[in-house]
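Record type: ASSEMBLY
Status: queued
Input:
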Amino acid sequence: MEPVHPPAIHRNSMVSVDPKQSAASPVIEVVGLQKSYGSLTAVDGVSFEVQRGEIFGLIGPNGAGKTTTMECVEGHRRPDSGKIRVLGLDPVRQGRELQKRIGVQHQDAQLQKRIKVWEAVDLWASLYEAVMDTDLLLEQLGLTEKRNAWFMTLSGGQKQRLFIALALIHDPEIVFLDELTTGLDPQARRAIWSLVTGIRDRGKTVFLTTHLMEEAERLCDRVAIIEHGKLIEMDAPAALVTKHCPQRGVVFSSDTAGVREAVEGIEGLTELSAEGEVYTLLGTGDNFVSGVLDAISQNQIRVRDFRTEMPTLEDVFLKLTGHAIRD
Amino acid sequence: MLKGFWKLTWVEVKIFVREPMGVIGTLAIPVVLFIVLGKLFQSDAVLGVQMPAGFTAPFNVAVFASVFIAVGAVLSLVAIMSIYREGGILKRLRATPLSPLTILGSHVAVKLLFTALGLAALVLAGKRLLPGLLDVPLLSFSVAVLFSTLSILSVGFVIASLVPTARFAQPVGSAIIYPMVAISGLFFPLAALSDGMQLFANLLPVTHAVGLMDGVWAGGDWLALWPHVLGLLVVFAVFSALSAKVFRWE
Ligand SMILES: Nc1ncnc2c1ncn2[C@@H]1O[C@H](COP(=O)(O)OP(=O)(O)OP(=O)(O)O)[C@@H](O)[C@H]1O
Ligand SMILES: [Mg+2]
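Status: finished
Output:
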């Protein structure tokens, strides 16, 4: 699959944008969302806002409450308490109206076993006033050859791509993607990433959940980390990294003597270790890496190998929750 | 949303046809039953079996075959609804502008269509192979069958909400529907039942379905058959309202 751009809308008269919702106002507002299943509190007082035109990601371990939260926002689950507004609508009372304007990929919902790919696309396309060029959409998702295949004969990844096609078909104002690329190969994943950024670039909003920290980091403008039904942190991935894992690493190898003395006074250095000729320096602050470079050149240290190690969202997740996302 | 209704109905028709067992069960088996039983009860030899002289048919074969078609449609609906629920297909369809009524309505339409086709196959085969047997008000009879099916289908939606998983759809559905058939008056007159059982049987839709079909078959007027029409209407109204409340989408 080629890197893709979302196909243009044909047929005009897309749902008009409510003038009250200026670019600055949130398209999703959630305040104090609470949802229990029996004695289990799946979502426990979650509040957040999603702005128009951003890609917002909800990340957290299995059972954290991501799907529950998302389905309450979509209007497919009834919250116990809390206030939700999506595009100014109440998802419970104005659910039908809302469905026309959002696109949804449910985590584990199937299709009829013997429905053909083109029939599903055609059915979905018939339900909305304006739709994308469906042939192009299928092509971009690598499904053209599967047009006549029964749903049950598709591979897991192909099914997932079909679901994404169905969620995008009417170029909705907000796209909800639960477990966006689970089960996809790297190529398909990349194609879907560019499809998603393409949606955002046209001013649409994307709300997704994912287990892949790399995906969240590359794709999301902001992420919220949820654990045991509570939001524990929310910001841009880079900001979260700076805040929680300010430490960056420099690793280099050198056979020059006196490396230790040369680097010891660097601004921001917090940890220094050496294993044979390999030196690992940890430090904080924007000047730390250039401090290392300065020390190397000033002391004429001969460097054979040099790399920096930047913390990632994965590290933030690990630090905040005390465990990796796949545990 | 009428467009969505027709599209969905048409897609479901195609999907149904793609499952050979479903089509055979719906269209072929009732016809075969009808012809075989019909021939036997007309005292024709079938596969070497011959009824003794002076034998009279213990029940109306055409009504039997029609009830068989209607019950098949209902059990099939129960199975499809529970499979669709379990697979999240209903959930996915609900995440579209389709209304709940459209989604369920299209399944009713599919079932009624195949009931009509099954009935047509029955009539075509009967006209050729069982001369004289079908010299009755066929149009009126067909309407009675479809109307009865619609009424029993509404019960099907409630049954579909009761079955815990798709595995249990067929057994639970059968366990509810077949006893209704047994005491419907199809195989023996209701008068053979105790008073209490008669009262109970009169609360069941299959009883009124059989009553209406028998009546129309015998040339009876719909107006004269009003208790059965009313019974089927009440069942339809009550169970439709009930399924609006209890139907589980996931
Ligand atoms: N319909 C339900 N009935 C009962 N419990 C449920 C239901 N749906 C979810 N739960 C429970 O609520 C909790 C949160 O589930 P949820 O599906 O929202 O998690 P999640 O973050 O989406 O997990 P995953 O990453 O595995 O998809 C879990 O403990 C789950 O067992
Ligand atoms: Mg989930």
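Annotation: DSSP finds eleven helices and 13 strands in chain A.
Annotation: Residues 31 and 74 of chain A are 15 Å apart (CA to CA).
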